[in-house]
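It is worth pausing here to work through a concrete case rather than discussing structure prediction in the abstract. The textbook approach is simple: state the sequence, then state the predicted structure, then interpret. We follow exactly that order.
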Amino acid sequence: MPWTDNNYHLQYLIYSIALKRYLEMRLPNFTYERDFGGVYYLFLRGCRAGGNTGVFYAKPEKEMIETIDELFLSPTVYGE
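Step two, the predicted structure:
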């Protein structure tokens, strides 16, 4: 699986947290379940006409995103 071999799952989790924070600032009544659509990766070398290869989609669980977000806010992450 190319997204785990290259740590794409970590990348999309970090980007998801950044987008969640941005949407929380910009949308007055932001809710993760309603306003966050998920993550798509298109592996161009794997995309084939008429096939369903090369496309990866995930919507991380809200609890996972919140837990990781709290870890990033923790002083121990930054060595304080």
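Step three, interpretation. The mean pLDDT is 86. The chain has four helices and two strands.
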